[in-house]
Amino acid sequence: MIYGVAHSRIVDMAPYIDIFQHYSDEVKVFSVDEEHDPDQITFALLWAPVDDFFDVYTNVKIVASIAAGVDNIMSCPSLRSDIKVCRNRDDEQAAIMSTFVIWHVLNHQRNFPLYLEQQHDKKWKRLNMRSPSDISIGVLGLGFLGERIASDLSHLGFPVCGWRKKHKDLSNPNIKVFSGKDSLPDFLNKTEVLICVLPLTNETKNILNINTFRELKPNAYLINLGRGGHLVEEDLFKALDEKTLKGASLDVFNIEPLPKSSLLWTHLNIIITPHVGSDVAANDAVKNIINELRRYHAGNALHNQVEINVGY
Ligand code: NDP
Q1: Residue nearest to ligand 1 atom 32, measured at CA
Q2: For 225, what's the count of Cα atoms within 13 Å in the CB-facing half-sphere?
Q3: Active site residues
């Protein structure tokens, strides 16, 4: 029997604990509030743990994130380097994320916000129709989610390029791949709609700054789905003021929920959503984690292990 514990400072883990009961012949997952022996716990299901979590659970060997992001686990000061951390990866999650992005891209392409304004004023006016082939897309982070987004947009007729760390040939030859820091300006120069699906690491923090925005094509639009830490908020306002950016869709923020005092809420050219770009359904998340636990206990490599020293 594998003994685990589920914990988060901000998410209710009860639905996950309930689903783990379907696998009660293999694993028993406690809530931190239930009576249990911390020394018996070798597995942890986490999202934004408390700082001293691993000081309490000294025998944890494997940690699973309920979702794709792991920055909230990587930044836990008590995390030990010998612990295996895995994230959740799921095709449905990628499909949900991709359709979310398509919604924002079409909004920009067809100027729906302006039609809403016109409707409000009962104004009948046909706006200039731009074709997908006119609007170049750049995806920052061409990993599991970014590749799906890039591929779907490419199939819709948008010219798409993507930026990643190491070069990889994609199965869709229409997507131009840029890799490494030196190629970033070339990538940005080709981009009108910039989509950020990077993980948050020391290297990617603040990457969405005024210098980045000024490299983009005219009429540029930003869609940030990575993390709030990627964006320098004051630079976004500057870029909107000087019309380097036409608008932005933001789904992730430094502080979530976004404080009511934030000026982002009321800017006319910013669309705010409450971190809903994508998610893994609890049933699928638990199924993925059970498979990882089986692989781990059979001595096999994990499918979705994160490299602790790399950060994603
Ligand atoms: P992956 O690990 O599969 O992909 C990450 C990509 O980013 C890879 O292509 C990687 O390059 C690239 N990358 C990382 N660091 C750098 C760097 N320094 N320079 C250039 N490229 C870099 O992650 P996912 O696609 O699954 O998820 C990405 C992020 O999306 C998550 O970490 C999370 O922050 C966010 N997310 C947001 C959600 C939302 O609802 N808003 C939902 C789910 C995820 P390489 O492959 O070459 O290493």
Answers
A1: 199
A2: 27
A3: 227, 275
